[in-house]
Amino acid sequence: MTSVLIVDDAAFMRLAIKNVLTKNGFSVVAEAQNGREAVEKYMEHKPDIVTMDITMPDMTGIEALKQIRALDPQAKIVMISAMGQENMVKEAILSGAKSFIVKPYKEEHIVQTLNKVAAAT
Asked: How much is the pTM?
């Protein structure tokens, strides 16, 4: 079972993603509401995949992505954000994100993307 850390500053978004993932066979091991918390929870739980929002207080998703990848170059992080601007997507991918999902998303798109990322070595 693939373990996932969900990072989003909106509690309803974390719950929505968690519901999609748990009913599709993923194990949500932790949640974080900002980038700083994401880095701590990543080191504590070492999940297979992280879903990461971009716009958050304290530390953005891109900053957290860079910190996590510096600590663990093998980290698999999928950005999920309403900010689908090309420069944000490009920065996330260049910083090591494995994929990018734009909100609002389709349930099957999240499941397919995470399964694809989990299967990639």
From this structure: 0.95
What gap in Å lies between CA 84 and CA 28, rounded to an integer?
25
Instruction: Give the domains, in start order, of the chain with CATH numbers.
Output: 3-119 (3.40.50.2300)
Nearest CA to 50 among 84, 80, 88? 80
Backbone angles phi, psi at 27, to 5 degrees: -110, 115
**pLDDT tens track for 56-115:** 999 999 999 999 999 999 999 999 988 667 788 889 999 999 999 988 889 999 999 999
Q: CB-based contacts of 90: which residues, under 8 Å, 6+ apart?
A: none
Task: For tokens 């860079």, name the residue.
Answer: 66
Residues 56/8, Cβ–Cβ less than 8 Å: yes
Establish how many alpha carbons lie within 13 A of residue 87's alpha carbon, considering only the half-sphere containing its beta carbon: 0
| Helix, strand, coil share (%) of the chain residues, nearest 5 | 45, 20, 35
| Average pLDDT value for the chain | 94
CA angle, residues 66, 38, 29, in degrees to nearest 5: 125
